[in-house]
Amino acid sequence: MASFNSLAKILDENKLTGSNYLDWKMNVMLVLTATKVYWVFTTEDPELPGPDAAQADHDRKSKWLEDNEMEKCYILGSIFNVLQQQHIGMAVASDIMLNIKEMFGEQHCTIRLLAIRDLISTKMVEGTSIRDHMIKMMGYLNELDILGAIMDAETQIDIVLFSLCGSFKEFVMTCHMNKMTMSMTELMNQLQIAEDLQKSNKKSAFLAEGNVPSAPKPKGATSHICNILQGFRKIKRLTKGELTLQVGTEATVAVQAVGDYVLTFSGGYLILKDCLYGNSLIVEGTMSHGLYLINALENVSNVENIPSVDIPNLKREGRHWNASFLEEEFIQDASGNDRIALEEQPENPIERYQEVEQVPIKPIPTLRRSSREVRQPDRLVYLGKVNTEDTDPLNYKETMLDIDEGRWMDAMKSEMDSIYSNKVWTLVDPPEGIKPIGCKWIFKRKKAPDGKVETHKARLVANGYSQKAGIDYDETFSQVAMLKSITILLAISTHHDYEIWQMEVKTAFLNGNIQEDIYMIQPEGFEATTEGSQRVCKLKRSIYGLKQAFRSWNIRFDLTAKEFGFCQKVDEACVYKKVSGSAVTFLILCVDNIALIGNDVGMLSSTKL
User: Fold this and answer.
1) Strands 575-580, 567-568: pairing kind
2) Residue 586 DSSP SS3
3) What is the mean pLDDT of the chain?
4) Of 142, 154, 134, 45, the residue nearest 95 (C-alpha)
5) Which of 185, 201, 223, 491 has its CA 20 to 30 Å from the CA of residue 114?
6) Is the pLDDT of residue 334 over 50?
7) One domain for residues 596 and 514
8) How confident is the model at residue 532 (pLDDT cuts 50, 70, 90)?
9) Measured on CA atoms in the order 372, 375, 377, 381, is the torsion positive or negative?
């Protein structure tokens, strides 16, 4: 029984209002699955077994009818009264869900298109967490599944791979080349492993060791050279003339950029550190027995670290010294040759392009300031004494010094009487570890059209700016009547000569209930103490100034209006309608102002009272 109550509470707190159709449907499916009655949706109503049928058929029919009634109770209990009356006569729960889908589900075609657009256009930002990106993408896919846009598993995987950033390019290439098939969970685990490897910064590079003859070995070696940008993992642009090279033709060319180039093999990859990029860095060569041989040129510098793969865009200058390049052989069989040198790249390699031309910084000239004396303008000279008689007091102390002190006290007492009559708070001892929010009095003289003071208004307002989201309040949104709805109803009333009445709810926000525990200091001038200790107000209802005050009042008004027989319009949450025979009444709510439109004065009077 406790399980039933807890599940029913989920649906009661998330009733169908029209705009929340998707969330409501998901909650209904979860509750029906938890209560083990969801199978009725996927099973047709069994035929009524005959008198000679087996006992199992009778039991199956009885079980289906019992679970179908349970489903109807859950569904009807989670929708508002008007829909309950329309669907209570339906015998099958699946027909109720189908009818509700036709009423509210079709309007989500636009939402489905927007969700597809968001899914396709989502791209992972470089440096962000792959886990957060995957959860975001899976959320889009789940939303599309609920909206009816069903995609097969392979298409979902392809969309996720397409959304990855450039640092996962090798991973995506490996998945496509090997035609890997995996679930979304497996893909997320593999991507997290790849992300951890990228963060470790401990990738190895394979270097070739050559058999150098006894001739004097040249000092140093030239850098890796490439004439395309595709393949660089990271790159640094160089200014013109910052670094130059002399190629085999004895021509001097400028290096445009330097960075790390990634060569991808069938069984691994090779990282070329400090690879130089330039459009004119080209030397011809041929591939022979797995070696890249440079064509013989005159006056060509010696070079080492020649790659053993045929990559047309990667060119080298220099003589070939019978070097052996065994990276691929080492990848296939690590123990195949002892002359392979596997070197660990340092985390912060020393760059060879650290010498940068120092540009002299010009000193910033000091601004000249005027020496004239600055004086405030005398705007009130010769105006005489300023009349402050009608200036509204700013706080409680000023009201005690105001000429209308008695009237302000009456206004404050009237406000406190409303608070006491609505039982807005109870006085309690200050709880430990909780700082109560403050409050203040707001005073206003309300004037008639002729300019004379008509009433003195005092309002107690809580300092809602000190509330914390998720602790002192949750939702703050509240409906407001649309202007076009008011215009349409006024046009209808004019056409049919309906009565139009207007009224204002006094201290409207004090009628809303709050669920959170909120403590507030006592209002100034009305403090109550017990045995010398200052007590605080524990709010039971909303008060002006609270973040959730507007929403609490709107919810309380909605429940009260429905108790009086009014039906809320589906497309306009602040317009209510009540029909009794030939009499009809419309009610429009705009914050704390109410407009009544109808053709029966008696019904209007009973509603107003």
Assistant:
1) antiparallel
2) strand
3) 75
4) 45
5) 185
6) no
7) yes
8) low
9) negative
Burial of 288 (0-12, 13-18, 19+ CB in 10 A): exposed
- pLDDT, tens digit, 9 for 90 and up, residues 26-67: 888 888 888 888 888 778 887 888 878 888 888 888 888 888
Q: Give 598's pLDDT tier (boundaries 50, 70, 90).
A: very high
Which whole-number Å values give the CA distances from 568 to 82, 395, 441, 558, in the listed order? 8, 41, 36, 8
The single-letter DSSP state of residue 589 is E
Among residues 186, 221, 420, 366, the alpha carbon closest in space to that of 305 is found at 221
Residues 435 and 515 in one domain: yes
Please state at what angle helix 130-147 crosses helix 153-162, rounded to 10 degrees.
140
Asked whether the predicted pLDDT for residue 329 surpasses 70, the reply is no
Q: Tell me the C-alpha to C-alpha distance, in Å, between residue 585 and each of 80, 484, 553.
A: 20, 18, 22
Helix (H, G, I), strand (E, B) or coil at 519: strand
First to last CA, the chain: 41
In a domain, 263, yes or no: yes
pTM, rounded to two decimals: 0.35
Q: Residue type for 189, please?
A: N
Selection from 479, 539, 537 nearest residue 514 by Cα = 539
Nearest in space to 499 (alpha carbons), one of 508, 507, 509, 489: 489
- Alpha-carbon distance of 275 to 283, in angstroms, equals 16
The first and second tokens of residue 79, run together, are 């929708």
Distance CA 478, CA 548 (A): 9
State both tokens at 202: 């401990």
d(CA 462, CA 385): 36
Token pair for 556: 């309380």
% the chain with pLDDT above 90: 10
Interval 234-256 mean pLDDT: 76
Note whether residue 360 is domain-resident.
no
Number of compact structural domains in the chain: 4
Backbone angles phi, psi at 340, to 5 degrees: -80, 130
CA–CA distances in Å: residue 390 to residues 132, 171, 406, 454: 59, 75, 15, 12
- From 135-144, 430-439, 539-548, the region with the lowest mean pLDDT: 135-144
Q: Which residue, among 344, 342, 354, 285, has the nearest Cα to 313 in the 3D structure? A: 285
Q: Are residues 142 and 88 in the same domain?
A: no
Question: Can you give the residue range of the structural domain that contains 128?
Answer: 122-200
pLDDT of residue 464 exceeding 50: yes
DSSP string, 299-344: T--------SS--TT----S----EE--HHHHHH-TTS-TT-EEEE
Tens-digit pLDDT profile for residues 363-417: 656 667 777 777 666 555 444 444 445 688 988 999 988 888 999 999 999 999 9
The C-alpha atoms of residue 487 and residue 37 are separated, in whole angstroms, by 47
State yes or no: pLDDT of 502 exceeds 60: yes
The pairing of strands 269-277 and 225-226 is parallel
3-state helix/strand/coil string of 238-261: CCCCCCEEECCCCCEEECCEEEEE
For residue 314, give both structure tokens. Answer: 């990667």
Residue 487 CB partners (closer than 8 Å, separation 6+):
none
Answer whether residue 370 is part of any domain. no
- Residue 24: in which H helix or E strand, if any? helix 21-34
Structure tokens at 539: 């709010």
Which residues does residue 539 pair with via DSSP β-bridges, in sequence order?
A: 425
